[in-house]
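chain below, 119 aa
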Amino acid sequence: VQLVESGGGVVQPGGSLRLSCQASGFKMGLWHMSWVRQAPGKGLEWVSSISSSQFTGYQDSVQGRFTISRDNSKNTLYLQLNSLKTEDTAMYYCARGDRTASLYASSLRGQGTQVTVTS
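prediction:
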């Protein structure tokens, strides 16, 4: 059972990235899934979640700029990041669980993918 993120990189403010998270060992479609992030020197922060029935939720600071989606046939979770800001710089992790569970120390998370927004 594991999650593997990809798609991070270095972009300028206003740029875009698409993060992917490949799940293995379990059927992702049966679970709430989330993205969380950790900026340098800060704690883990919830970003967005999607339920098994495709309901979505976003942190206020990313609402309207980020879009979470899932392709259950590919067991893959996505996060489209648009209009990136320097304060979005962080390590991004996908996590199994809803907004609350995704932040538990015991939650299943991947190794992360780094997003750096800099001019």
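The chain has a mean pLDDT of 96. The radius of gyration is 13 Å.
thats it, cya
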